[in-house]
């Protein structure tokens, strides 16, 4: 094939034979690839003889339809993509084969950019209007992979035109009911990716009244299993971040009931599916993961929708079964679904109490794949909230602790990934909320003051905020405050000063002042503030701050320090009066903020 001395007709026959061999098993295909066939074929498409070029392209197309195509070979030679763009219009065969190749060799942002830089969009737009189905379908798939999770390409696609019509307008035409389900689904996926790429508004007619109804329609049981799966997956992605679309989808065409049927599917084959050539597809698992993903998106923001989803028969059992599945896609989708539903306060108090969801969750955190650790640890954070089943007396709370939850969360706080550090400290904060002293002590001992100070220096303000939240939750309830301060008081006060002297937002300063307020609520712990003149002066400064939230927090702390009913109040009042605190309070009586005014009045009453 690479010998120019051999007649072109013979070389063409060789390419055709190679194409026949490429239609064998995956193993045989891999042998062809390993033998260097792709590079030979890529050289072949530069020939001037169109028949030879087409034979090479057909063989390349077959090779790249394999499960794991050698995508890198397309990009090794910088002239390959421009040449393909240049010859795509030569014939129907070149159009079909090259669009198929583009749809199979665009897996990264770098690939997307290389294709676009070489004019792929301008080349693909006219092909959307082709009358040849075998050209239109790979063209749609190419546009989809070009736009997927790429804002720049999505926006360029949305503004690209052919004969005065934008690509979105051309795509809408392909959603028409007289088009095949496969084509409608492919066009809807393109519009979905344009929407998620910020090129189309979720509230636009194109998305709300065209793309959304199409993907929901594909979920109905009169469609093939593949269309059911693609429909649910695309629906999940389309509505994932938009509450309005979630609300509309939830009441459209009995979608929740339809998706529930996915979970009950047991057969593994369907003969009229268009992908029967794919081997070993477990449709039961495919449908389950698609349903879990769609449920996760539907219930992401609305309590009523979550309630409807949770009322699905045996849903929690299906989720637990999914989390225990050997299929990684099912496992991942099930935990995403649980994560979404665990945002529901009401459901945490009721439905979840009847199901031991924490067991497979803890197993996934400890033994599951690394790429699911963010979502599993985030779900654990939700289950550790005060109102959740994981916190009830004589329920999984003790079991979660016995499984080593504190150690797991502390380990996460030391990870390089900020999302994992955040989930670790967030989980500890939730665990400490209204916990017994024994649990609080275990948390402090496990995390240690050194790690606590590291987290207080974390560049992520969310992590700092949750670390302060942990300290605040540890210091709640008079006996607990005094017990913890008697052991860790010096370090906690150092932490407070460290934050108050730093360059931080008002929210972070407010949270720190709230910690001082809790310290001031203890019986013995008040001394840590009263004996620290630097901290007292800081409180006075914040009482006069321009931010009213900081004024309220500082004033509340002062009020706790001077509270009449507590031992030593007179002595503390005298010291603070001498420092000028009472005068500041009197000045604050002119405040127009109702909450601050009430706190000031309460504090002044204590001075008598």
Automatic annotation (TrEMBL):
One biological process term in Gene Ontology: proteasome-mediated ubiquitin-dependent protein catabolic process
Subcellular location: Cytoplasm; Nucleus
Keywords: Cytoplasm, Nucleus, Repeat
InterPro entries attached to this UniProt entry: ARM-like, ARM-type_fold, Armadillo, ARMC8/Vid28
Main location per the UniProt record: cytoplasm
Gene Ontology cellular component list: cytoplasm; GID complex; nucleus
Name the UniProt record assigns to this protein: Armadillo repeat-containing protein 8
């Amino acid at each position: 094939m690479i010998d120019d001395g051999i007649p072109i007709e013979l070389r063409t026959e060789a390419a055709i034979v190679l194409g026949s061999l490429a239609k064998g098993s995956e193993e045989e295909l891999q042998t062809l690839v390993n033998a260097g066939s792709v590079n030979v074929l890529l050289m072949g498409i530069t020939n001037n003889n169109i028949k030879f070029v087409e034979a090479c392209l057909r063989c390349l197309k077959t090779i790249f339809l394999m499960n794991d195509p050698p995508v890198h070979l397309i990009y090794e030679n910088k002239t390959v993509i421009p040449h393909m763009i240049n010859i795509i219009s030569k014939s129907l065969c070149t159009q079909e084969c090259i669009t198929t190749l583009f749809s199979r060799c665009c897996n990264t942002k770098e690939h997307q950019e290389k294709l676009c830089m070489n004019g792929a969009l301008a080349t693909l737009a006219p092909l959307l209007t082709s009358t040849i189905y075998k050209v239109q379908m790979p063209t749609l798939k190419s546009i989809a992979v070009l736009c997927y999770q790429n804002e720049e390409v999505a926006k360029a696609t949305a503004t690209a035109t052919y004969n005065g019509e934008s690509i979105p307008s051309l795509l809408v035409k392909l959603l028409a009911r007289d088009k095949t389900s496969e084509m409608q689904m492919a066009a809807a996926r393109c519009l979905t990716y344009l929407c998620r790429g910020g090129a189309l508004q979720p509230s636009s007619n194109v998305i709300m009244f065209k793309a959304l109804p199409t993907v929901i329609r594909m979920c109905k049981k009169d469609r093939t299993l593949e269309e059911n799966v693609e429909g649910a997956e695309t629906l999940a992605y389309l509505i994932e971040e938009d509450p309005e679309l979630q609300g509309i989808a939830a009441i459209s065409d009995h979608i929740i009931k339809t998706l529930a049927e996915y979970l009950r599917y047991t057969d593994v084959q369907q003969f009229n599916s268009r992908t029967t050539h794919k081997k070993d597809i477990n449709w039961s698992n495919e449908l389950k993961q698609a349903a879990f993903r769609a449920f996760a998106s539907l219930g992401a923001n609305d309590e009523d929708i979550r309630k409807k989803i949770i009322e699905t028969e045996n849903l929690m059992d299906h989720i637990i079964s999914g989390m225990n599945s050997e299929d990684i896609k099912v496992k991942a989708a099930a935990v995403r679904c649980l994560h979404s539903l665990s945002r529901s306060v009401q459901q945490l108090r009721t439905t979840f109490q009847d199901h031991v969801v924490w067991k497979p969750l803890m197993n996934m955190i400890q033994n599951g794949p690394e790429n699911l650790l963010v979502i599993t640890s985030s779900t654990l954070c939700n289950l550790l909230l005060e109102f959740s089943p994981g916190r009830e007396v004589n329920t999984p709370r003790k079991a979660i602790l016995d499984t080593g939850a504190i150690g797991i969360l502390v380990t996460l706080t030391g990870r390089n990934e900020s999302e994992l550090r955040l989930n670790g400290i967030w989980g500890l904060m939730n665990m400490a909320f209204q916990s017994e002293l024994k649990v609080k002590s275990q948390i402090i001992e496990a995390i240690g003051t050194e790690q606590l100070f590291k987290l207080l220096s974390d560049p992520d303000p969310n992590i700092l905020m949750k670390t302060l939240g942990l300290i605040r939750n540890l210091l709640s309830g008079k006996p607990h405050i005094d017990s913890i301060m008697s052991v860790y008081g010096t370090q906690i006060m150092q932490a407070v000063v460290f934050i108050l002297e730093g360059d931080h937002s008002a929210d972070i300063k407010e949270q720190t002042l709230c910690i001082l307020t809790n310290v001031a609520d203890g019986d013995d712990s008040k001394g840590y503030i009263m004996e620290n003149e630097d901290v007292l002066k800081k409180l006075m400064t914040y009482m006069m701050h321009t931010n009213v939230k900081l004024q309220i927090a500082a004033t509340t702390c002062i009020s706790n320090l001077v509270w009449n009913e507590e031992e030593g109040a007179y002595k503390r009042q005298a010291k603070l009066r001498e420092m000028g605190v009472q005068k500041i309070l009197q000045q604050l009586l002119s405040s127009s903020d109702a909450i601050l005014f009430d706190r000031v009045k309460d504090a002044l009453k204590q001075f008598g």
